[in-house]
Amino acid sequence: MTKEVMISIKGLQLNEEQGADNLETIIAGTYYKKNDSHYVVFDEVLEGYENTIKSIIKFNGKEMSLTRHGLVNVHMLFEEKRKNMTSYGTPFGNIMIGIEADNIDLEERENELKLQVAYDLEVNYEHLADCKIEMHITEKREPLKLV
Residue 16 burial by CB count (10 A; 0-12/13-18/19+): exposed, middle or buried? Predict the structure, then answer.
């Protein structure tokens, strides 16, 4: 796979009080593989803020980690059947979150990667939602040139 990629990230949160909440982002980023782990790196811009958030996602089919620096700061680790706690720093203060992955599934093809992670999310030691992340990473293609 090439270094320049397009990343589609779909998130779904299901909780009893508010129902389902879907989110989808498509963003350009960079990809590399090191020591049997895949890495995607991209910058996010949040509406209403000038500063960006640098995101690094590392995964290998057994675990996934997400590190974000900038407007928000966090290092989240997703491991099957293991709860990990972390502090999520936002412009409004820190919150304690817990993540326990139920399933991590990675599909590898020559020019694309698909990653699905199903997990339970806790905020301040209380269950908030059952969540799912789906990532689809493909080579960035050159736009068609009209002659």
Answer: exposed
